[in-house]
Amino acid sequence: MAAAVTAAVSFPSSNKSTSLSSRTTLIAPERITLKKVPVYYRDASSSGRSVISIRAQVTTEAPAKVEKISKKNDEGVVVNKFKPKTPYTGRCLLNTKITGDDAPGETWHMVFSTEGEMPYREGQSIGVIPDGIDKNGKPHKLRLYSIASSAIGDFGDSKTVSLCVKRLVYTNEQGETVKGVCSNFL
């Protein structure tokens, strides 16, 4: 469906001729495409503004959707192998504080065993579900952390995954100390 629209456009006054671009596209609730030939104008009004008229066509038809094809499978990237209802339970092999005592906050380097069951690539993230329940009595939700290690892990055997996590600790408006659920669980 298309409809014709006429718009008046006002430009600031100048003594010079001004050229408008030959094509302008605006995206709003509907697609608006303005097609015009180069327009030149010279101030001829006493109000200090020039007015030109532009004819536009408005279309509400969406462009054809292109099906997205993931290249992850072709590249051997494994995604979502484990789910929150059927998680992988790993064992922490190493948990080392990597910030100094005088640093603001604490950052920890953690190495977890995957026994080779959880292949990953650089740039992926891993979901961690902390123990316990939230204030509504439901199990805590999954938190995502960027993987810090290379695909072969810290020990080079592809059987570990590493995270670097800053513990979240802050004081709320009531003066109470609040600790992040997952960063302090880890």
TrEMBL record:
Entry cofactors = FAD
Which UniProt key words apply to this protein? FAD, Flavoprotein, NADP, Oxidoreductase
Stated EC number for the protein is 1.18.1.2
Q: Which reaction does it catalyse?
A: 2 reduced [2Fe-2S]-[ferredoxin] + NADP(+) + H(+) = 2 oxidized [2Fe-2S]-[ferredoxin] + NADPH
Task: Quote the PROSITE patterns the UniProt record gives.
Answer: FAD_FR
Q: Does the keyword Membrane apply?
A: no
**Where's the FAD-binding FR-type domain?**
85-186
Give the matching InterPro entries: FAD-bd_FR_type (IPR017927), Flavoprot_Pyr_Nucl_cyt_Rdtase (IPR001709), FNR (IPR015701), Riboflavin_synthase-like_b-brl (IPR017938)
Which family does the similarity line name?
Answer: Belongs to the ferredoxin--NADP reductase type 1 family.
Protein name (record): ferredoxin--NADP(+) reductase
Say which species the protein is native to.
Salix viminalis (Common osier)
Lineage, top ranks: Eukaryota, Viridiplantae, Streptophyta, Embryophyta, Tracheophyta
